[in-house]
Amino acid sequence: MYKLANTAWDDEELEAIKSVVDSNRYSMGECVSEFETTFSDLVSSKYCVMVNSGSSANLLAIAALFYRSENQLKAGDEVIVPAVSWSTTYYPLQQYGLKIKFVDIDNETLNYSLSELESAITEKTRLIVAVNLLGNPNDFQKINHLIENTDIILFEDNCESLGATFSDKSAGTFGLLGSFSTYFSHHISTMEGGMVITDDEELYHIMLSLRSHGWTRHLPFDNKVCTKSTNDFEESFKFVLPGYNLRPLEMSGAIGLKQIKKIPEIIEGRRANARTFIDVFSNIDGVTIQKELGASSWFGFSMVFEEGKEARRKIIEVFDANGVECRPIVAGNFTKNPVVKFLDYSIHGTLANANAIDEGGLFIGNHHYDVSSELENVGELVLNNLR
C-alpha cells in the first residue's frame, strides 16, 4: 500500500508528550515559547507565534493586518488569491469582509500564473496572498517586482511548504507575514499546530494579543499595542483587541522541539524521492507533473492527465485497486465549490489552468523515507493504464 501521509515520530516525540503529562502543565507554556524561538531561528525570521492549526495561522495573520497603526486593511479592500488552494486560505478573507479576486495558476508550477497576476493587479489591490502549493515556492523575485513602489501587502500561505527555499531564502519569509502548518500529514507534525512568522514587531505584538482573547497578559510591558500597568491583577483580564483563543497545547510545543531537529533529514528524504518521481513520470506521455521552482520541499507529487476527467477516473480506479492513496490537487478550482456563494468574490480571466487541474489532476503522497521502488510501481500503473 502507498499511503498518502505518515509522521516522522519515534520515541522522542512520545517522551516529549510524557514530559508534559509529568509536568501537569498542559496549556501553552515554556515548550511553546521555546519552539517559537527555535522555529524563527530556523527560517531566519525575527518573530514566530504558534497557534493551534495552520488554518488559525491564516486567520491570525489576516486579523493582525486590520489592527496595525498604519496601512491597515479594512472591509471592502481587494485581495488577490490563486484559484487553487485550501479552503482556509480564503475563509479569513471572507470573515473580515475583504473582496476576493481569484486568479489563475500556472499549469506547470501550480502556483500563480505571473502574467495573470500582473494583469489582475489594479489600484484597488491591497493584499496579495501567495500560496506555495505542494512544497513549491512561488517566483518571489517577479512577484516583488510587480508590487514594488506600491502599498500592496504580500502574505504567504506556506502551510504546505516548510523547508522550501527560493534564492536560498526560506519560503514563508518573503511576505510581511507567512503561515506554516504542523498538521499530521505535513512535513513535521505536532498533532495539530501552526505558526505565523514576521519581522514586524507591531504585528507580532498584535498577534500575541489576538491569539489569547485579545487580552494584554502575554504582551511585553513595552509593546506596540497598548500601555500596560504594573498591576498584575488589573492586567490579568484586560482586553484591548477583539481576539480569539487560538493557543496551542503545551504538548504541541514539546513535540515540535523534537520534530524541528529532524527537518533537514526529512526534507532531504523528500527531495530524494522527488528525483525518482521526476525520472519516472517525466517519461510518461499524457501526464504533466509539477515543475520545481527554487528548491521545493515536495509535500506530494501531482499528476495532471491531458485527457482530463476520463483518464483521471480510470487511474483512480487502478490506484484504489492497488492500494495507492490519492487526493485532488488541494481543493481544485476553488470557485467550483458551493461555499463560494458566501464569499464576496470576482474571477479574473477564465481560470483555464485551474479548471484543467480540477478536472484532470490528482496527487499522491511523499514521505521522509525512501519510497523509490513504490514510485516506480506507481509509474508502471499509470503507464500501463493510459495506453
Per CATH, the class of the largest domain reads Alpha Beta
- The total number of structural domains is 2
Q: How many individual β-strands?
A: 14
Q: How would you spell out the order of helices and strands?
A: HHEHEHEHEHEEEEEHHHHEEHEEHEH
* Unreliable stretches covering 5 or more consecutive residues: none
Structure, explained:
The protein is an alpha/beta fold and 387 residues long. It folds into two domains: 11-261, Aspartate Aminotransferase, domain 2 (3-Layer(aba) Sandwich), CATH 3.40.640; 263-385, Aspartate Aminotransferase, domain 1, CATH 3.90.1150.10. It is built from 13 helices and 14 strands. It has an eight-stranded mixed sheet, with helices on both faces. A four-stranded antiparallel sheet has the order 10-11-14-12. Strand 2 (78-82), helix 4 and strand 3 form a beta-alpha-beta unit. Helix 3 crosses helix 7 (201-211) and helix 11 packs across helix 13. The mean pLDDT is 97.
Brief synopsis:
The chain is built from 13 helices and 14 strands. It is an alpha/beta fold. It has two domains: 11-261, 3-Layer(aba) Sandwich (Aspartate Aminotransferase, domain 2); 263-385, Aspartate Aminotransferase, domain 1, CATH 3.90.1150.10.
Outline the secondary-structure elements.
Elements: H1 11-23, H2 30-43, E1 47-51, H3 54-64, E2 78-82, H4 87-95, E3 99-103, H5 114-120, E4 125-131, H6 140-147, E5 153-157, E6 165-166, E7 169-170, E8 177-181, E9 194-198, H7 201-211, H8 232-236, H9 250-259, H10 263-281, E10 287-288, E11 300-305, H11 309-321, E12 326-327, E13 345-347, H12 352-360, E14 361-365, H13 372-385
Parallel strand pairs: 2-3, 2-4, 3-13, 4-5, 5-8
Antiparallel strand pairs: 1-9, 6-7, 8-9, 10-11, 11-14, 12-14
